[in-house]
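## Example record

The block below lists the input lines for one assembly entry, exactly as stored, with component labels intact.
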Amino acid sequence: MAEVKEVVIDVNNVSKDFLLPQEKVNSLKGVFISLFKPKSKIVNQHALKDISFQVKKGEFFGIVGRNGSGKSTMLKILANIYQPTTGSVDIKGKLVPFIELGVGFNSELTGRENVYLNGAMLGFSRAEVEKMYDDIVEFAELRPFMDQKLKNYSSGMQVRLAFSMATRANADILLIDEVLAVGDADFQRKCFNYFKKLKRQGKTVVFVSHDMNAVREYCDRAIMIEKSEIIASGNAGKIATKYTRMFIEDSKMGQTEDTSSSNRWGTGDVKYSKPKITVTDKLIEIIVSAKANVDVKDANFGFSITDATGQKLLGTNSIIKKVKIPRIETNQRIKISWSFPNILRDGDYFVDLAAVNTSNTVWDWWEEAASFRILKEENTTYTIHPDININLEEVN
Amino acid sequence: MQKLRERYRYSIILLRELVRTDFKIRYQDSFLGYVWSLLRPLLLFLILYAVFTKFLKVGNAVPHYAVYLLLGIVFWNFFVELTVGSVSAIVGKGDLIRKINFPKYNIVVANSFAALINLGLNFIVVAIFMIFSHVGVNIYDLLLIPLIIELYIFSLAIAFLLSSLFVKFRDVGYVWDVFIQGAFYGTPILYPLSRIPQHYQLIRQIVMSNPMAQVIQDARYVMVTHQTTTINQVFNGNDIAWAIPIGFTFVLITVAGWYFKRRSNHFAEEV
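Predicted structure tokens for the full assembly:
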């Protein structure tokens, strides 16, 4: 029998408007003047429109959406920091009152004093903090630094202390806004372990993130907010895929054949034409022709592929491939084609081209000469996505 | 009682830490540290004492004028510290307000506690002066307690108003700065009330209806000399006159509390 779980967060038709005067009146003189002026323009910014969702006890619930979509506003409404303009939010159980790490940290105080201060923010008395003090310091690995002022901590140390405090929060419902964006790999692993622990303990978590891998891994369900409205909700994996897709499609619209904005320089002795890219499930092929404007020799032609985050993924050139290029006469054209297996995952990619001679005179250096997109049937959270065969057989 | 404690548990914990932090930060990096809390008023009083008793001779007719003057200044300083400090209290904690939900009045109350602590320290200085001036101490001095409570409520009410108004109207800070300078001279602190001639009855009544004036004069009456003019005297000996400043204080704290509570839900969006 399916267990009917209790709804602990019930959001009903919540809208939030921010009334932003075109010119903000924040002086008495301003008020005085605006009394006599015909109505000054007030821009009603809809941060959220008619949002409804429910979160059940023990669920990990994701809220995804791009910057400015209203997801953080939603979290602040859940945390009771903002009041909804219309609609209601019902919360059952003790809600952690903060949405960020290290709230109330004061850089002029020592680490120890900050533990007590932050503890008070979380609702712990001095005696209670006293009892867990050692554990907090141990977890943050900051034992020798506790009597130093916080301003002398590195940002990583501050985050560790803050996170160590946050894990102490004694609540049924936690709101987490993008904590994983900070900290080194070691710290992130700690975060993950903490999340797993929360899951085991059956805590309810609302999680706002840009990191779709984290959403896929931890969230049971998710909603996607776009332009103040919920545009999708359901299984976290599906929502995460949808979100990634939306980004890819979006960047297409912004980008046309026009590459004038791309970065190109060099002597112009040899110049590339616009490359042609063919993408199939198996293979990616780049074809380009180079035209010599003067007689040149010892040419070296190369390319590289960059992903949307600027990471250089692969590339090569004719020297690495040990291809000897013959002398090129003035006005002669050479057609070059590169091809490699399609191991890229979903996303947008850019092709950089270079034509240099072997003594490194740059003839044509063309960044983002072309772009292409990968959309595959399958989905992966890993950096590359080769076609992987899976084979199962029964062994007796 | 237990229930009340439970309900305000979070506020109590928070208040304690906010006050503690405030106090720590205030005297950080100063050589004498907390000693300044005591030294500063003491030195300021010595200056005033010298100016007003040796050069200006304003209060020669008043017995124990030094203590009389100091008492007024101590109360006034408390009022100034509490209200001026509160103006930017909410805005100054904007970072906190935007990230965590907690009862906002704690910020203003924590701020007022800092002023209360200083008031206590100032009274040590007053006590020193009383001993040197041979002002007797008696049981009636305990009447100071209800007077301080009244003063505290009055100041707190203004603090609630100023801090919440400042979120929307930043000129409140300037207005209050100027206003408080004027109010200093409109309150009988440096001069005895007898300096306002008897036939300006209405002015004397208005001046004394100000809770600040009433509290200071009453404190002087019980602590220093019965020659001090109290509010009933300017209202033809009618004791009901006390209802004016006290009533005003209660109306003010009610209005200020209501306004603050109503506004506090929106602080996070506006600071």
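Chain B has a mean pLDDT of 89. Chain B has 14 helices and no strands.
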